[in-house]
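The material for today's practical consists of a large collection of protein records. There is nothing in a record beyond a sequence line and a structure line. As an example, a complete record with its sequence and its structure tokens follows:
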Amino acid sequence: MRPTWAEVNLTALAENVAKVKDYIGPDVLLNCVVKGDAYGHGARQIAAAALNGGADSLSVATIEEAAELRSSGICGPILVLGFVPPKDAWQVARENLTATVFLPEQAQALQAAAARAGKTIKIHLKLDTGMSRIGIAGSDQDVLFAKSLKTYENLEFEGLFSHFSLAETENPSLALQQLHKFEIFSDQLKILGACPPVLHMANTAAIFRFKESHFNMVRLGVGMYGSMPASIIEDPLDLRPVMTLKTSIVYIKEVEKGRAISYDGTWIAPKDSLIGTLPIGYADGLSRSFGNKAQVWVRGTLVPVVGRVCMDQTMIDLSQVPQAQSGDEVIIFGESQPKRSTLMLAEEVGEIPHQITAVISKRVPRFYNNLK
């Protein structure tokens, strides 16, 4: 087997969930986000571990993601955050899902599907407060639409939610404007007796930065996997990295000063150097942005990635570690001493920690520990 793999620590994930659950307190529900195959960690395994750690519910992006969880035996509440096509309302009923709505035709289709199945479907109304993607705008007409959701016999208007676009930036003013817009709309619904019982807006950044945004449910995304979304957000809980991406050196060669490394010659050896080749590349999810920017652990030393990342291979400069040998383990990110978080790596290469793990491809085998 090619010596490139990911270790996924389910014990660490359950501990992270439990820590956040304790942090938000008993009056706030915890929804754990497992969309995108749980940010590349493996949705089936992560969903079970999150519920084991104390999550009250899960959320995904699509009906298909939710159906996969159901087929694996996940029975807890699952909120579909993305667009639910009216033609697929029957699947929401079949899988006992909670649907996001923002269009009258969605509500009508869900009502019809629920009635045919003899069930009640829970729905959450999406309010756009600043992302400018799906969601109602909060107009007077939208208030009437929200009120109408209470009239459907087979729908339970359970939640109202929105999403921050700027919760992790240094200036909080725009995030607070979004929060204010959400509060105004929910207050309008309360006056009309049409406000649902569950309100949620906080993502990982807002959980730790804007306690006033907790309402009675929060959505834990990247924090569950052991990273803050940006360095400006402090981690008061010492959350543990859940995925550790590893590979091994398969070849080492000496190159002379002036030698170009990899495609396009973007790195030229400034002196006689020791270059190691790793059997991992962008087809495995290692972004090309890692070239000449990222660092990886070899024998307790951070060494630089040099030259372009290739589809299947990546080169590193081992000049600082002359004792390195073929077969030595290399840690790209994850649990190490000291910790090498996805946030550290993301900031080196100009990406976000969510993306670092989410794009790790199926070609990289995942190995899961057992929950303790």
